[in-house]
Hints:
heterodimer; A: Nucleotidyltransferase, domain 5; nine-stranded mixed β-sheet; 12 helices
Amino acid sequence: MPRTPLPFFFDCGNYGIKSRSSNGSITTEDHFVHAFAQLDDGEFKRVTAQASKPDEEYFTVNGTHYAIGNKGKRHGAFERRYGAKRYNKDYYGVFLAIAMTRSFQRSTDVYLVGSHAPGDVDYTNDLLDAAMGDWVVGWQGSNYKFSVKDGFTYHEPLGGWANTAFRADGKAYARRDMNDGVTLVLDIGGYTTDGLVIDPGGSIDYSTANSVKVGVLNAVRDFEKNFRTQNAALLKTVGTLNESMINEAIRTGIFDLRGLGKIDCAALAQETRQSLVNDVYGFYESYGGATEYNNILLTGGGSELLYTELLAAIQHTTILVADPKQEMGKLFLSNVRGGEKWYLLQKAIGSITA
Amino acid sequence: MNEPYSSPASVPPPGKGEGGKPSRAKSQVISARLHPAFPTEKSALDIFNSLLAAKYTPRAIITDALNRAAGLTPEMFADQERVNSLAYKLEQQLEDIGDLSNKIDDGIGSINTRIETMREELLTALTDRIGDILRSIKTSDPVAFKEFAVSDDEGLEFSAEFIANAKKAFKGSYRK
Lengths: 354, 176
């Protein structure tokens, strides 16, 4: 008797890999840094031979060894792929296999619900091609097999909208005003900022789905360059600055350089945030401005980072944020949560039979 | 002669510190005047018995009537004037009991009306206050307002138009 595939909600974001899954009655949400390094057999043996059980950052996917996150970065420079270039089995597929392993922790058939930036809409079949098939993963001394049987993709801003507008079971509204008014969703991510307009009655205007290359990672790079210039003597012997630490510095105005102390960088942080806001605001203006929309919905990690500045810039009476306030700065799971609600809705109305 | 005043089995014992049993006449009066707020005879009697336990209640009148009834002898009936006098006094005492019962009944009704009024006032005040708080949160912090609004306690049905739009917006599964 064929097993019923378990749905897996996956966002291979440029800044972080996010997922949500239901393993029977247990719902798991996960987030890890978008980085991995491929290890040869010798390197992997050195890791596994020294410990009774390898650390949880080490995986073997279809026979190839990987280290993820900051441990992955220690094994050499990680070359991040952007946009549709990610949609290959040796990149998107590897991240997916690792995310499924961390979430399910048991072998299973999978129905993938994967998000993508609107700018990648022409490559959604590539995304699904990269995901489909069998994935055999070794992790912490156990082996798992995942068979991705089927799935669909959705625009990331749509996920943010569904998470805000729908009830958890995807079968009713949580907010009436999202049905009655016109909503502009702005998803400020790591590499792109995406927009999507939802008309009254939940009518999604896909013609408005658009992406521009404005994201937190650009701000991180700009900040790092300027911070190095301002602190050249201090950082003379420092090779790489940790991306997460830079992000925190941009957020707080204090750069915790650990062994080199804490540096006040409030002015530079403010300047960096404002520069990014100006770019986002330009994108927002291209959608026609405040009088066109009843609601402005912000989603993605950048929306939290820039929230105060965006409120001042956009000047709209109803600016909403798709991620819960208590989780802001940590997870940004609204897109995958909304993906689940969108999946549940489509299942309830008979569009999905799996 | 005591038999007519024995307590029915369903009547609970009187309040603490009081001797004797409530009369059948009293239980009948209460049974006939059950207030809507107290749907069973037992609950009404419980309340009445607790009132009897208080210092100034019909309990003294009933006890007096019981004592007088217990003191009646066949010889007394020969003295028509004395019998009439006793009957008159008993009748007066029963009327007093009836009046007190009516007053208690009216009092319970009045209290109930007051409770309803207070409940309405409280609900109105709470609704207004919550509305004020929500408006102030929405004005000062849309994020917090959003978190409240996304509560799973709410559930507004999707319209047929919405469902039609949702179907239209779904391309289908990979292996459709």
